[in-house]
Amino acid sequence: MITFLFLGLCVLKVASSLTQFASIYPLDPALPIGASLTATCTVSSELGLEARTLYWTLNSKRLPSESYTVLNRTALTVSLQRLNGSRQQSGDNLVCHSADGHILAGSCVYVGMPPEKPVNLSCWSRNTKDLTCRWMPGGNGESFLRTKYTLKYKLRWYGHEKECEDYNLGEPHSCYIPRDLALFTPYEIWVEASNQLGAAGSDVTILDVLDVVTTDPPSDVQVSRVGELEDQLSVRWSTPPALKDFLFQAKYQIRYRVEDSSEWKVVDDVGNQTSCRLAGLKSGTVYFVQVRCNPVGIYGSKKAGIWSDWSNPTAASTPRSDRLGAGVCDPKAGEQNSTLRRELKQFFGWVRKHAYGCTGLSIKLYDQWRVWLQKSHKTRNQVLQGDKS
Amino acid sequence: MIDVHNGQKPIQSSLHNPDNRHIIRQTHNLSKLLLGHSQDLLKEYLKCQGDPFNQSDFRPSPSSRPDLPRPRPEMWHSLTDDERLQGNFTAHFLLSHHLRHTQEEQRELNPNATVLHALLETSLNRTCLLLANIKVVMDSMCVAPPEIDAPLPGNVTVFEQKVKGYWVCEGSRDWLERTERDFASLVDKLPNF
Questions:
Q1: Do B109 and A89 touch (CB under 8 A)?
Q2: Residue A10 pLDDT > 70, yes or no?
Q3: Which of B45, B46, B51 is the best substitution to test chain A (most A C-beta atoms within 10 A)?
Q4: Does residue A312 contact residue A290 with C-beta atoms inside 8 Å?
Q5: Out of A15, A61, A105, whose CB is closest to B62?
Q6: For chain B, which residues lie within 8 Å of any Cβ of chain A, measuring from their own Cβ?
Q7: What pLDDT shows up at residue A143?
Q8: How far does the CA of residue B192 sit from the closest CA of chain A (Å)?
Q9: If you average pLDDT over residues B39-57, what whole number do you get?
Q10: Which parts of A221-263 fold into alpha helices (H)?
């Protein structure tokens, strides 16, 4: 074992002395696009190589010998003009070779631009607990160099500057502050961009966390018929649980569409009730309905909050009209579906009574399946395969 | 019962222990898995550093070689099982540190290279697992692990970091070829019952 260690040490010593055999100056320079660069490769006399036999490559492309100058027996320079932006973020590889192609030394050249100031900084808080911010790089966003973005924030009237730490949000240029946020007092928030050629800060955004609150979509959205009324559906939902005790003035929005259409109709004037009746609908038609919430005036904030995501779609159908439409001889596709749906409902009722263990079956399940079908882009007239039981 | 194979050191009776046989087979399987993975790592690593690293004739000078002994396949037959195990332990111990240094360096040099970072993370984790397995086998065969100092990252230029990372990825692949061979040999020596 001692022999092994001794041999190991010897290898180390030899390896470190080899690093002195050739060197390049400057090492790892950072330059603006269009700049010029003169680099020097100096070889140790122990190598026994003449400078005039060496050559240079940039990203493995051989540089013309007209751009070389032999400084002395052991030093060769190369001049590069009007440099383009770096091909890779880890730097362009400028390499000094011996005549037989061996790599003697290398330097990574960074050519790019200083960052422009980040723009479009926006932030939102989920249920007043946290803050997520997003921004865009300034200009066209390409500086050819690795640019680091740091989101900073501080309480406007006291306190020291803090840095956001969690940048791994699955989308670039965003950061997440998970806790310890003050309410009822404004923050100053900004983003600093920096790379090897410079730095730039965004404009400062001033906000109170309470002014940028969003919440979860309303839970438990139920859509049902209004008796036998053919043109109406009733929508009911619950206040999002996280802010249930504080959403006195919350606003809601409903949107709905006919099953086979992509055009949504939006009901905007729902106010802060948790139920609404949709009218003017087509009879015997399946509708998909979604609801979302805006925590307006939370904790007395004067500003509108941020709309939540839409709830998962809930489906329901209006009763079929018994009156025939003028001039209609063949049943329309919607009517076929509605007949089918009625029969299914009767079937499920029978199953629940007579087949033990099938209590989960209901017309609601069928409606959810229709929603899923739409999402999968399957054709409308798919034959029903039957339930799984 | 003690078997003697080809003038090698007699197989220790510990190999008759079913648990030890199992860990030897598992370590062999693990080394095969890592070997395939190490080819992908080397290829992706070279791609991310830019030319000339990504060229088929890329051959750097050994000046940026990290502290890592060579597997030396030409010496393989003259080594005992104990020596082979110690060699593997030393190599993968050193590699577990070198891979971590390369990972940290690449986070700065190639921050957007998500495929490379995933491959490095997996390599690092599995190398540590492999090392733990090798230690268990050595303990069961009463082979003392060598004492080794953890290597330091060193203060090297960016180009030297890129070259060193190449040596680390290539060294990892070369040593996994050796580890697979060593454990295949041990598996062959296992009693058949």
A1: yes
A2: no
A3: B51
A4: yes
A5: A15
A6: 48-53, 55, 57, 59-65, 67, 69, 90, 108-112, 146-147, 157-160, 162-163
A7: 78
A8: 33
A9: 93
A10: none
Q: Quick one: pLDDT at residue A96?
A: 95
- Per-residue pLDDT tens digits for A265-280: 999 878 888 899 999 9
pTM of the model: 0.71
**Do A106 and A126 contact (CB within 8 A), yes or no?**
no
Task: Indicate yes or no: CB of A90 within 8 angstroms of CB of B49.
Answer: yes
User: Is B51 in contact with A19 (Cβ distance < 8 A)?
Assistant: no
Structure tokens at A344: 């299914």
Among chain B residues, CA nearest to A13: B67
Inter-chain CB proximity A90 and B65 less than 8 Å? no
Percent of chain B surpassing pLDDT 70: 90
Contact B115, B44 (CB under 8 A): yes
* A100 three-state secondary structure: coil
Burial class (CB in 10 A: 0-12, 13-18, 19+), A76: buried
Judged against a pLDDT cut of 60, whether residue B11 lies above it is answered with: no
CA triplet B156, A54, B53: central angle to 5 degrees? Answer: 45
Prior bond to A26 cis, omega within 30? Answer: yes
Q: Cβ(A341)–Cβ(A368) under 8 Å?
A: no
Alpha-carbon gap, residue B24 to B133, rounded angstroms: 8
Cβ neighbours around B121 below 10 Å, total: 12
Bridge partners for A192 per DSSP: A150, A201
Residues of A in contact with B111 (CB under 8 A): 89, 146
Residues of A with CB under 8 A from a CB of B: 1, 4, 8, 11-12, 15, 18-19, 21, 24, 27-28, 57, 59-61, 87-93, 95, 101-108, 146
Is A213's pLDDT higher than 80? yes
Indicate whether A58 pLDDT > 50. yes
**CA closest to A16 among chain B residues:** B63
Neighbours of B131 (CB within 10 A): 18
Q: What's phi and psi for A79, nearest 5 deg?
A: -115, 125
pLDDT per position as a tens digit, A151-175: 999 999 988 999 999 997 778 899 9
Tokens of A183: 């309410």
pLDDT at A260 over 80: yes
HSE-up of residue B188 (Cα within 13 Å, Cβ side): 10
SS3 label, residue A290: strand
Q: Which residues in chain A are contacts of B160 at CB distance < 8 A?
A: 19, 106
Nearest to A214 by CA among A151, A299, A296, A275: A296
* The Cα angle at residue B178 between residues B176 and B180, in degrees rounded to 5: 65
Using the 8-state DSSP alphabet, how is residue B41 labeled? H
The verdict on whether omega for the bond into residue B66 sits within 30 degrees of 0, i.e. cis, is no
Return the bridge partners of A201, or none: A192
- The average pLDDT across B71-94 equals 92
